[in-house]
Design a protein that fits this description.
single chain, 692 residues, alpha/beta, OB fold (Dihydrolipoamide Acetyltransferase, E2P), Rossmann fold, seven-stranded parallel beta sheet, six-stranded parallel beta sheet, 41% helix, binds adenosine-5'-diphosphate, binds magnesium ion
């Protein structure tokens, strides 16, 4: 039997089953083999009914002794009683009772898991359940490990509950015994102590013992991560094979002069990063570098110095920001930075008129401008450059590998610098940015004072206002931020608007302004400009100011309903202050709190370290939420987890990169199996890696 055999052609699979399977994306034998158990039932995890404790989680295996619909005070519910050798347990379902009752009959052997309640006897409400019957006959004594498969209502209706899957998979797995060749070379298996593939496929479904299961899981996780890393490795390899047309001959005429004109000394970390960038620029292969540096660490000046080198070599640069406000800010920085040089800087935004855009584009194409600044539209669509060689993408954690590829189609041989202030835990950056070289600014400019963070409730607000007033009187400025969450955009906007009116009144004669996402780019822009000129002292906004804005004179960041923000977002917002010589104060106002959100706010109070915050954020929200593989443009993971499988990820990365170093195009016979899997299973991604 082949791995791509259609499930529908298997014995015992009728159209009903095949259709239900197809609906959840399972078509081939291979898909079935990769329908991994969601958990396993083994003797060490099963309790007896006389060991139960109220409020504790437990799993019980027993025989159904009775089932019935019962009338409750409000509505009827389904009750099932199960018995093991030592006693009884009641299970009750208030929701879906009609459907649930069809799942069980007297005499079934079932496993139920859930929280134990006590109501005149032990009971579980809405437990997780599996019908085991013959396979489960007394697993407590026999020690058999029973795989429990994910299933859903439709699958169950087609007879594919957990037990149905076991029945389908058992003969399949037995039939494949000895027929699954391993694609990994022997030495690699030995080096990373990996189980044979055939054994792993068998043991992930029907392990003899927990040790075999662990090894099987390890091997299959390794597989997944290995192919992901292999795609990245091949991609990185192919980039290093690309030869740039435009070489950098020297640092040019502007770097030194502009460097000397900076009003400050670069930090050691900034200098180190400049050297790393210069090494890339002068090499014959395009730069693909990620610059990670916490908020306020001074990434902007790095991009401008790099642009100065490019201009000095006669090449154009593009600097892209995620929002128009930020593009505008970069533009102003660039104008100041290049003042007194012949270098011409241009800003392209969506709000310019068609005629303006046309003229600017023409000038860019003719090479009149040296540095172009804008949003992503800059290198998409109709914009053409005469000699684009440096592309800087600022504040860019939202773009994964694939998207970056598309973004940069125009500049395939250009040197690319991606800058991000989002501290990304190492395991994640290995995937999202796994094809880039990494530079880190791990040092803040000297003389910065530590930001003080406080979490307060509404009762304390008058005090907070008093404090803000003091800061404004001392000549400083303040941000007040309201949450903006899409689902309730309108309500949020109202909250911000009302808050603004109240605050404007409270802080007279200081000037306040409201900034929100529904404003036109022009409106937003003129407010930001007024704020940076200190014509406005209090800026009330929704989260549009999240990233990158640099107003060193602003010292207060007050965040309303702080519990509604993610940690990473709070960290970004807080990074807007404490950028100058004056001490910054961040006030997190909470209104509705549960213990989770209080915990999160506490982390903000306790640390300023972006890496710690990012890791906490991941831990609390899960990787998928922020920038899991879903957004990275890489294949989805079925069994491995980037957060928890860091060690396997590291191993698989080393194995993949070593392999590509030895055999850049996977042409050696010993790598045929690997190559075939990439072409079959990762066909959608092989272009990304340039494997054909
Ligand atoms: P980010 O890394 O968050 O983009 P910015 O580039 O906006 O940070 O820099 C934050 C502030 O620090 C700016 O006002 C910038 O002028 C200033 N700055 C950058 N480098 C230094 C330095 N070496 N010494 C002092 N101030 C610096
Ligand atoms: Mg920045």
């Amino acid at each position: 039997m082949r791995h791509d055999t259609q499930i529908s052609s298997l014995r015992g699979v009728g159209t009903r089953k095949a259709e239900a399977l197809a609906e959840v994306g399972l078509f081939t034998v291979n898909d079935l083999l990769e329908h991994f158990p969601r958990r396993y039932l083994d003797r060490s995890t099963v309790s007896y009914t006389n060991d139960l404790r109220k409020d504790k989680q437990a799993t019980i295996v027993g025989k159904v002794t009775g089932t019935q619909m019962r009338r409750g005070r409000k509505r009827s519910y389904f009750e099932m009683v199960i018995a093991d050798e030592r006693g009884f347990l009641k299970c009750r379902w208030f929701n879906g009772a009609n459907w649930i009752q069809k799942r069980f009959k007297k005499g079934d052997v079932v496993a139920v898991s859930g929280k134990v309640d006590f109501y005149g006897g032990f009971q579980m409400v809405h437990p997780d359940f599996d019908v085991l019957n013959e396979e489960g006959t007394n697993p407590i004594n026999t020690g058999i490990i029973v795989p429990l498969y994910p299933s859903g209502q439709k699958l169950q209706a087609a007879g594919l509950d957990s037990r149905g899957f076991r029945r389908l998979l058992r003969p399949l797995v037995d039939g494949l015994e000895g027929q699954i060749p391993d694609f990994l070379p022997k030495e690699l298996l030995a080096e990373y102590k990996l189980m044979d593939l055939g054994d792993a496929v068998r043991d992930i479904h029907f392990p003899e013992d927990m040790d075999a299961l662990k090894q099987a899981q390890h091997r299959l996780k390794f597989n997944e991560l290995f192919f992901m890393q292999l795609l990245l490795a091949v991609r990185k390899q192919s980039m290093t094979e690309t030869i740039k047309q435009n070489r950098f001959e020297s640092l040019g005429d502007y770097l030194e002069s502009q460097y000397k004109k900076l009003p400050y000394e670069l930090t050691g970390a900034q200098k180190r990063v400049m050297n790393e960038i210069w090494d890339d620029l002068k090499s014959s292969h395009p730069m693909n570098r990620l610059l990670q540096g916490d908020v306020g660490s001074g990434k902007t000046v790095i991009s401008l110095l790099a642009a100065a080198i490019a201009a000095g070599n006669g090449y154009q640069s593009a600097i892209m920001a995620p929002t128009e406000i930020l593009a505008e800010q970069h533009y102003k920085n660039a104008l100041t930075f290049f003042e007194g040089t012949p270098i011409r800087v241009v800003l392209l935004t969506g709000s310019q008129t068609a005629a303006q855009k046309r003229d600017l584009r023409k000038a860019l194409k003719e090479g009149y401008y040296h540095v172009a600044i804008g949003t992503h539209a800059l290198i998409q669509g109709k914009v053409h450059f005469k000699d684009l060689q440096l592309v800087v993408i600022d504040e860019q954690h939202r773009f994964g590998v694939l998207q970056r590829g598309e973004l940069l189609e125009k500049a395939a041989e250009a040197d690319v610098l991606v800058m991000t202030a989002t501290p990304i835990p190492r395991t994640l950056s290995m995937t999202i940015f796994g094809d880039l070289s990494v530079s880190i600014i791990d040092e803040l400019p000297a003389g910065r004072q530590k930001i003080i963070t406080r979490k307060v409730d509404v009762i304390t607000l008058p005090k907070v206002y008093g404090f803000i007033e003091g800061e404004l009187k001392a000549g400083r400025q303040a941000f007040v931020v309201y949450p903006l969450i899409e689902a309730s955009e309108k309500i949020d906007l109202e909250a911000a608007t009302q808050g603004f009116e109240k605050l404007a009144e409270r802080f007279k004669p200081f000037k306040a302004a409201l900034l929100h996402g529904r404003m036109s780019a022009d409106e937003k822009d003129s407010i930001m400009q007024a704020f940076s000129r200190n014509d406005i002292q209090l800026l009330v906004s929704t989260t549009v100011i999240e990233v990158g804005i640099d107003i060193p004179n602003a010292t207060v960041m007050m965040i309303e309903n702080a519990e509604r923000f993610g940690l990473a977002q709070l960290h970004q917002l807080r990074g807007r202050i404490g950028r100058g010589e004056h001490r910054g104060v961040c006030v997190l106002v909470h209104r509705n709190v549960n213990s989770d959100s209080l915990d999160r706010l506490k982390i903000m109070v306790e640390t300023l370290d972006g890496f710690k915050i990012a890791e906490e954020d991941l831990r609390l929200r899960g990787a998928g939420d922020i920038f899991g593989t879903r957004q990275s443009g890489l294949p989805a993971l079925k069994i491995a987890n980037i957060l928890w499988d860091g060690e396997i990820l590291k191993d698989s990365r080393r194995a993949a990169f070593d392999l590509v170093q030895k055999d850049p195009h996977l042409r050696k016979g010993i790598h045929d199996g690997i190559r075939r899997i990439i072409l079959e299973k990762y066909a959608d991604y092989s272009a990304l890696a340039g494997i054909g």
